[in-house]
Amino acid sequence: MIRAFRDIPAPHCGLGRFRRSEDGASLVEFSLVVGLVLLIFFAILDFGRIGYAFVMGQKAVQNAARMAATRPAACNGLPPRHVLRNTQLAVDFGTSCSDASAPCEPEAPVTCAGSAGNPTALAIHAAVRPILPPSVGVDGLTYSYTYDPGLGFLGGPYTPMVTVEMANAAVPMVSPLGNLMGLFTTYAQTPFQGDFALPTISVSLPAESLE
Predict the structure, then answer these.
(1) Nearest-CA neighbor of 103 among 155, 159, 161?
(2) Domain limits of the chain?
(3) Using CB atoms within 10 A of its CB, is residue 10 exposed (0-12), middle (13-18) or buried (19+)?
(4) Over pLDDT 90: what percentage of the chain?
(5) Can you tell me the distance from the alpha carbon of 152 to that of 146, in angstroms, rounded to the nearest whole number?
(6) Are 200 and 58 in contact (CB under 8 A)?
């Protein structure tokens, strides 16, 4: 009789078994790890897109510089030809601008953003648009023409150094990478929330002829 009474479980035995039970431990571990796994997955996804946009942007600017170096100027205000720097110089037309007498008149740099009203800027943008970041319009490419004494000859077509630059380009983030990073950092904002700004890309080439 006494033995049977001892076999009856105490009221608190169920609570003890609950404390010792490991059922559902894997669910807790999963909830702790899933955020990090998603962060890595979205990072791979978006960093791949950012890398692709940067490489394609570089190629687009290279092609744009090549076209700009062989076409009429995309900016207004460039002289059509190299003129004599000093009328007292006794040099013949056709003398190289790199000659020791420095016969060519140095010209101030000319810089402008691409305009839909300029045929050269419009044609260049149309040619490279398929590989440009979507946020880069005609005015997203900047053209600079800088006098170089090593290029051209007196009386010949003005041939400056041509630079094409792409700045303020951005890649939209399609994943909540920034918000996920915010869960693991103390920053309210991260560089991966909204649009990711690409670094400035520029390419310079000597002009062949602007006629």
Answers:
(1) 155
(2) 27-206
(3) exposed
(4) 53
(5) 13
(6) no
> What is the reported pTM?
0.76
Instruction: Give the list of residues 6+ apart from residue 1 with CB closer than 8 angstroms, or none.
Output: none
- pLDDT band at 173; cut points 50, 70, 90: confident
Amino acid identity, position 88: Q
The two tokens of residue 173 are: 């983030």
Q: Are 155 and 146 in contact, with CB atoms under 8 Å apart?
A: no
Between CA 173 and CA 183, with CA 178 as vertex, the angle to 5 degrees is 160
C-alpha distance from residue 140 to each of 2, 39, 54, 167, 196 (Å) = 93, 32, 15, 7, 16
| Token representation of residue 137 | 């319009």
DSSP the chain: -HHHHHTSPPTTHHHHHHHH--TTHHHHHHHHHHHHHHHHHHHHHHHHHHHHHHHHHHHHHHHHHHHHTTSS-SSS---SB--BS-TT----TT-BTTSTT--BPP---EEEE--TTSHHHHHHHHHHGGGS-TT--GGGEEEEEE--TTS-BTTSB---EEEEEE-S-EEE--STHHHHHHHHSS-S--TTSSEEEPPPEEEEEE-S---
Q: How far apart are CA 143 and CA 111, in angstroms?
A: 6
Better-predicted residue by pLDDT, 72 or 211? 72
Say if residues 169 and 135 touch (Cβ distance below 8 Å): yes
